Amino acid sequence: MSMIKTHRLSLIFFLLLYLIALTGCSHSEASDNDVEKAKSKSAPVAVKVAAVEKGSFQREIISNGLVTPQQKATLSFERGGILQSLRVKNGSAVQKGDTLAVLNKSQVLLEKKKIDIQIEKAYVELLDLLITQQYNKLSDTAFLSHEKRTNLMIKSGLLDARSRMQESNLRLQQCVITAPFSGKVADVEVMEHNRISVGKELCVLINDKHWLTDFYLMESELQWVHNGQIVEIIPFEDNSTVYPATVYTINPMVDKNGLVKVQALLHNGSSKLVNGRHVKVKVIIKVPNQIIVPKEALVLRSNREVVFLYKKGLAKWVYVDVMEENESKLSVKGKLHRGDEVIITNNMNLSHDAEVELK
Q1: Helix 106-132, helix 158-173: angle, nearest 10
Q2: Which residues face 147 on adjacent strands?
Q3: C-alpha distances in angstroms, 261 versus 55, 81, 246, 278?
Q4: 221-228 average pLDDT score
Q5: CB burial of residue 151 (10 Å; 0-12, 13-18, 19+)
Q6: pLDDT-derived band at 274, boundaries 50, 70, 90
Q7: What is the three-class DSSP state of 200?
Q8: CA dihedral angle for residue 108, residue 113, residue 116, residue 120, rounded to 10 degrees
Q9: 90 and 296 in contact (C-beta within 8 Å)?
Q10: Distance (Å, rounded) from C-alpha 260 to C-alpha 253?
Q11: What is d(CA 241, CA 271) in angstroms, rounded to the nearest whole number?
């Protein structure tokens, strides 16, 4: 019996030792986890900051626009004939007065030669008439009265022949199309050696240096816009390219949607601007004496707008009211001063007096 009793005591003793060991291990693991949590909880949040600015805030009105040339002409033939020479193609750059196309002139030149002969005959007839009036040469018509000189020119056929010559010269001019201004050629749809009918379109000539951009503003926004004001033209496919333009016209009519058409004039445009291109138009209005912060600084706490200031390793929240905004910045009211540093990264989950460090 004593041996059995001794055995039971030993077993109980070993069980107690085992339970103590397990408890010690669990306490050790818990302590390690608590240390890690403490370390994690106390680790400062890495942040970036930006300085608060004070000055004129650039309020932006954004609208979509359509680019059209300030000068555009559809050039067509005033007479029919065979297209002998086509000297341009789509995209050709031309200067004012350059020849773009020429019709075959053979028939017109033949008519002109016949008229030259008629004029020579008319001069001979005029000289005969002068001789009958006791004059010896054509220059003697200077001694005649205007009425008598006109009658002799009509009788000789000279007046009619000269009129025919003017018509012939006009027909020669109509065989040639020249550029009325400098620009680029578009919509060429004719080919050499083909017959061209009267009024057939040769091409469209566009002045590619001066562009108009049509855009629309709300009636309430017109108070900020005036002729001569600078606006920015930005192609949709390239936001890094900005073309400065000036407000050129403001249509004094409000359409059924409450919009007013505005035109901006852009000089010295690049090849990126073509007729019919859609662009973004940015109207910038300067609002003076504003407190300005980056958009990234603003967060919401309990449905209120807040920014966090960086103060000696701590995040201090400040309630603000947003007054104006543009694509990158905000104008706010609150207890902020020029030069204060606002946190602009990792601020979504920050709390007041959270430990932070500059990244």
Answers
A1: 160
A2: none
A3: 31, 44, 14, 15
A4: 89
A5: middle
A6: confident
A7: coil
A8: -160
A9: no
A10: 6
A11: 12
Please list, residue by residue across 50-61, b when 16 or more beta carbons sit within 10 angstroms of its beta carbon and e when fewer do: bebbeeebbbbb
CB 238 within 8 A of CB 279: no
The percentage of residues in the chain with a pLDDT greater than 70, rounded to a whole number, is 86
Look at the chain and count its residues: 359
* Paired residues of 86 in beta bridges: 101
List, edge to edge, every strand of the sheet that includes 93-94.
Answer: 72-76, 201-206, 183-186, 93-94
pLDDT level of residue 327 (50, 70, 90 thresholds): confident
Q: Say whether 25 sits in a helix, a strand or coil.
A: helix
Residue 351 has which token pair? 């709390």
Q: Does residue 341 register a pLDDT over 50?
A: yes
From 323, 324, 312, 318, select the one nearest 350 (Cα to Cα): 318
pLDDT average, residue stretch 219-247? 89
The tokens for 47 are 């942040």
Angle at CA 153, nearest 5°, toward 150 and 157? 140
Both tokens assigned to 216: 């629309």
159, containing H or E segment = helix 158-173
Residue 262 banded pLDDT, cuts 50, 70, 90: very high
Query: What pTM value is reported for the model?
Result: 0.62
Q: Which residues pair with 341 in a beta bridge?
A: 51
Amino acid at 77: F
